[in-house]
Specification:
Blueprint lengths: L9 E6 L3 H13 L3 E8 L2 H10 L4 E3 H10 L3 E4 L3 H13 L3 E5 L6 H14 L3 E4 L6 H13 L2 E9 L15 H11 L1 H12 L2 E8 L5 E7 L4 E7 L8 E8 L2 E4 L5 H19 L7 H19 L2
Parallel strand pairs: 1-2, 1-4, 2-3, 4-5, 5-6, 7-10
Antiparallel strand pairs: 7-11, 8-9, 9-10, 11-12
Helix pairs in contact: 1-9, 4-5, 5-10, 6-8, 8-10
Length: 305
């Protein structure tokens, strides 16, 4: 029951039951004081039931389950492969539900544009969860660098060891990650830091590296340039994240952050604020479309080399 004069909790349903949903999204939503986890939908009924029961929420499955979850929710969060996420996000937006999406929104420009257009037409709020844009430590650092300006170059390196020898990560079982590699999985993270500081990308060159590693050279609207290295198959000893800017005031490097769950809570807060104020967040469906456009351009270059 809502106390008179207080804001009712935002009812958020979760679509997806995989490792990301289990480890990050469901626990973050269930623990958020301003949120009611309104249900969990999964393609496998037993997985949906297990995750939902563990967090005191109802479980849904099947096509009719999607509609029932939407009916019970003000917003929906997605923990699904991007090209499964996109059409469901369009469906949810058209039903008047706000969206908390995972990156990338889709792996085709047409798919991402459909989502962005549906959000605009429905007038719903949207947030795309790029981790560093919502972790408190890194979001503050990004805002600070954008305000300072005067940057000359930047370097971003995001190397995972998901597919390295001896890896036991449950995320390695994801078919879309194996197919699309580091460009699509961690590329959105790197771009989501570089673009708000250096401006949009006006020129992009992509080149392949070892296994799924990709190298990008970017020219930004501010006149600055950046280089990006992305991959999921680095040896364990070579994995890590490094992002730095160099400019008139010297060099600055991205600080550490307190894990994905804290960052996801920040994304929930951002969605709630966009719902309350009607002001779009900078990392919304339209920005998600821009990320997909850039990644698709890089992918096309890699295929023609």
């Amino acid at each position: 029951m809502t106390t008179p004069g207080t804001t009712p909790p935002l009812r958020i349903g979760l679509l997806g039951t995989g490792p990301w949903a289990r480890n990050t999204q469901a626990p973050a939503l269930a623990a958020h004081p301003g949120v009611e986890l309104s249900g969990v939908w999964g393609r496998r009924a037993e997985a949906a039931e297990a995750l939902a029961t563990g967090h005191g929420a109802p479980a849904y499955t099947g096509e009719e389950g999607v509609d029932a979850l939407l009916e019970a929710s003000d917003a929906v969060a997605f923990a699904l492969p991007p090209d499964v996420q996109a059409p469901l996000a369009v469906r949810a937006a058209r039903a008047g539900r706000h969206l908390l999406m995972d990156k990338p929104v889709a792996t085709t420009v047409d798919g991402a544009r459909e989502v962005a257009d549906a959000v605009a037409e429905a007038g719903v709020a949207s947030v795309v969860f790029c981790t560093l844009r919502f972790a408190p430590e890194t979001s503050a650092w990004i805002a600070e660098q954008a305000a300072v300006g005067g940057w000359f170059t930047a370097r971003a390196q995001w190397l995972g060891s998901l597919y390295a020898a001896g890896s036991t990560s449950e995320y390695a079982e994801s078919p879309w990650r194996r197919e699309k590699g580091g460009l699509w999985d961690v590329g959105p993270h790197a771009l989501s830091v570089l673009i708000p500081v250096l401006g949009d990308v006006e020129h992009l060159t992509a080149a392949p590296g070892p296994v799924d590693t990709v190298h990008l050279i970017l020219r930004h609207t501010s006149g600055a340039s950046s280089t990006v290295t992305l991959g999921l198959s680095a040896p364990a000893g070579a994995a890590g994240v490094e992002i730095e800017f160099r400019g008139e005031r010297g060099t600055t490097a991205v600080p550490g952050w307190d894990g994905a769950r804290t960052a996801f809570r920040g994304a929930v807060d951002a969605l709630a604020d966009a719902v309350r104020t009607g002001t779009p967040h900078a990392c919304d469906a339209r920005f998600g479309l821009r990320l997909t456009e850039l990644l698709a351009r890089a992918e096309t270059q890699l295929r023609t080399r």
